[in-house]
């Protein structure tokens, strides 16, 4: 196969447009919309083959896919609301959370060095005053965060609707693309496959981590007479943070060890030992579930996340696994790696 045939003008143009689009998405904060759209698109494509095998009527298939897309958008919206509703419940309300934080600080004083204890608030009232002063000092930033949160929610919803519409169009029509359109469609398909491989695999890993953490917090520690606060929150945090490869496990581990310190130093050590073991297990899971699908090792993903974080901040960390898998897929198909 000649180089001219392998890298024709439509292909090269589609690579440039695709790369510019991904860069623009990161620069303009549209990553949430992209991911939500790809998630709905992937779920529809996952289920549609089962529907297609049972339907010969095109109109019935069109209606079924439209309903399926709407149901998926609704379920994802409800699924995103459940964790938020939990944090807004009585257990997660501001006064209760403030009291529990103060209790944790008080219980931890005997477990930490004196020089560090001097920097901690002495009571719930002192903690409240500290937080109030901080909020006044950063009022402008808090307002910006609130606006950004609302914008992100809007992006998520619009992205899911676009993903459902794109899946409806893509699965119910026979396409006759011209060269550039065909090349661009191929870029989208490759991005969708990379997203599907990474995200679905990472969901499995996060679920396994949350399950093991739940066994530790709800079974092993109680059998030893140890009952930690925020157990449900910690398990939920383990799952949500676990959706980020490698770094997510470090985040949840840190929180769990700090909470364990409120009981005793030995409990924190036991939690650290258990979580390090689970963390090592995650490397095997990444190698087995993620690595084998995109032919990438954990150090490759971590390096990509480090570079992307330096360039784009937290959005870069979230984008890195999918973008890296996509780029590696394109290079592999072009027989360059």
Please describe what this structure looks like.
With 337 residues, the chain is an all-alpha fold. It folds into 2 domains: 11-174, no CATH class; 178-337, no CATH class. 83% of the residues lie in helices and 0% in strands. The protein contains 14 helices and no strands. It has helices spanning 3-6, 9-28, 31-52, 58-87, 94-108, 114-117, 124-137, 139-172, 179-223, 231-241, 247-261, 265-294, 298-312, 314-333. α3 crosses α4 (58-87), α3 packs across α9 and α4 (58-87) packs antiparallel against α8. The longest helix has 45 residues, at 179-223. It is globular and about 65 Å long.
Q: Supply Rg.
A: 24 Å
The best one-word shape is globular
**Beta fraction:** under 5%
Quickly give the structural class. Answer: mainly alpha
Mean pLDDT: 75
Number of strands: 0
H and E order: HHHHHHHHHHHHHH
- In DSSP terms, counting alpha (H) and pi (I) runs of 4 or more, how many helices? 14
- Work out the oligomeric state of the chains in this entry: single chain
**How many domains, as an integer?**
2
Question: What gap, in angstroms, lies between the N and C termini?
Answer: 17 Å
The poorly predicted ranges are none
Helix content: over 70%
Biggest beta-sheet profile: none
